């Protein structure tokens, strides 16, 4: 069974940093690209960042570029999101998601989400 | 980035109604369009990929159509478990984008 377990969220002051983690199981992690998607309270879904299977291709939404860094450790089946310079508008539930990787790409599995609250 | 616009933002419907949600892309995305359903407190769930392909396990009352810039999600006969928020998402560009969502409520 495919599982994605997100962790690392919490309450943090503006300007501070936080590192999110996602541990994958039930599939060969290094066969798949992975993404982070977030959802602010009561709002819609926003794509945040993506990383290819070998970390060779990485991309970010403009809203987080130069502040967030995505990475992965295939040996540990883990995905990370280093978030620096956090702003109140970064407050959201952050989901680790798997990219199906074939044909028309889409999200086929979601983590349970980890809540990041940025507030003074 | 490609902008995705859904209409309506919300709708009220009764069990058994036929419901149609529209998603428009700011540029052509061929058939690189996916639909997700999200229920309160839960992660979204894939319904349709590639504009019209039904994800395994999704009831056949859900269907998708369209290509280029205009897409539709249709629920042929709304069931109580279908009251949720629906999102379209493009994967034509590596920077994926979602529509703002359509909330389907009970009339």
Helix content of chain A: under 10%
How far is the N terminus from the C terminus of chain A? 40 Å
Q: Compute the CA-based radius of gyration of chain B.
A: 13 Å
Strand element count of chain A: 11
Structural class of chain A: mainly beta
Largest sheet of chain A: 7 strands, mixed
Give the integer mean of the pLDDT values of chain A. 97
Shape of chain B: globular
Question: β content of chain B, as a range?
Answer: over 45%
Strand elements of chain B, count: 11
Using the alpha-carbon principal axes, give the shape of chain A: globular
How many angstroms separate the termini of chain B? 36 Å
Give the biggest beta sheet of chain B.
7 strands, mixed
Mean pLDDT of chain B: 97
Output the number of helix runs of chain B: 0
Biggest interface pair, counts: A-B, 22 and 25 residues
Strand coverage percent of chain A: over 45%
What is the ordering of alpha helices and beta strands of chain A? EEEEEEEEEEE
Please give the radius of gyration of chain A in angstroms.
14 Å
Total helices of chain A: the number is 0
């Amino acid at each position: 069974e495919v599982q994605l377990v997100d962790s690392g969220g919490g309450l943090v002051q503006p300007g501070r940093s936080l590192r999110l983690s996602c541990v994958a199981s039930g599939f060969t992690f290094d066969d798949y690209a992975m993404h982070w998607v977030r959802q602010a309270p009561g709002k819609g879904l926003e794509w945040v960042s993506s990383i290819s299977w070998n970390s060779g291709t990485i991309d970010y939404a403009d809203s987080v570029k130069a502040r967030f860094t995505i990475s992965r450790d295939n040996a540990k089946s883990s995905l990370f999101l280093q978030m620096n310079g956090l702003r109140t508008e970064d407050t959201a539930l952050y989901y680790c998601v798997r990219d199906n990787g074939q044909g028309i790409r889409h999200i086929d599995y979601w983590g349970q989400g980890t809540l990041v609250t940025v507030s003074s | 980035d490609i902008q995705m616009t859904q209409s309506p933002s919300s709708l009220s419907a009764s069990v058994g109604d036929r419901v149609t949600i529209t998603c428009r892309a700011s540029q052509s995305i061929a058939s690189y369009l996916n639909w997700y359903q999200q229920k309160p407190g839960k992660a979204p769930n894939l319904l349709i990929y590639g504009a019209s392909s039904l994800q395994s396990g999704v009831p056949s009352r859900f269907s998708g159509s369209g290509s280029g810039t205009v897409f539709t999600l249709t629920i042929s006969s709304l069931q109580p478990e279908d009251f949720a928020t629906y999102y379209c998402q493009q994967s034509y560009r590596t920077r994926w984008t979602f529509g703002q969502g359509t909330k389907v409520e009970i009339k």
